[in-house]
Amino acid sequence: MCRLMLLCAVAALLLAAGRAIPPPEEAARMARFVLHNCDWGALATLSAQEGLRGRPFANVFSLSDGPPGPFRGSGVPYLYLTDMEISVQDLKINSNASLTVSLAQTPYCKKHKYDPQNPLCAHIIFCGSIVKVS
Q1: H helices of 66-124, where?
Q2: Distances from the Cα of 61 to the Cαs of 25, 54, 77, 81, 132, in angstroms?
Q3: Cα(12)–Cα(9) distance, integer angstroms
Q4: Are the beta carbons of 41 and 61 closer than 8 angstroms?
Q5: Complete domains list, the chain, with CATH
Q6: What's the order of all strands across the beta sheet hosting 40-46?
Q7: Alpha-carbon distance 15 to 114, whole Å?
Q8: Boundaries of each CREG-like beta-barrel domain copy (predicted)?
Q9: Which residues pair with 124 in a beta bridge?
Q10: What's the number of CA atoms in the CB half-sphere (13 Å) around residue 90?
Q11: Has residue 130 got a pLDDT over 50?
């Protein structure tokens, strides 16, 4: 019984360590932390739609960076999209996009009484091209 309790205590410590927010000066670790702890993000494309062509267009999507739990994420955002989605139609014309994700959607900022616009309530913006994967 004592060994089981010790293993549980070690597991709890590892889980707590995995959830600790990285120091702000470690930008890459912070970005992975924010991405892994968020369930959705705002994907901005350049619209290809009539009347909006060439203008920024943002849409909210569920996302994942891998299985839930500490030490399980890849740091690479994955979005489940359909060809019927307006943003996907935009991406077929121009694959450049940005993805914004904020800790404001997690309990972290509320727990620390941070306004969502406070820099301590970290948000990240990924910029690049969206690539279809199977």
Answers
A1: 86-93, 107-111
A2: 28, 21, 11, 8, 15
A3: 5
A4: yes
A5: 1-129 (2.30.110.10)
A6: 78-79, 56-64, 40-46, 96-102, 123-129
A7: 24
A8: 22-133
A9: 101
A10: 25
A11: yes
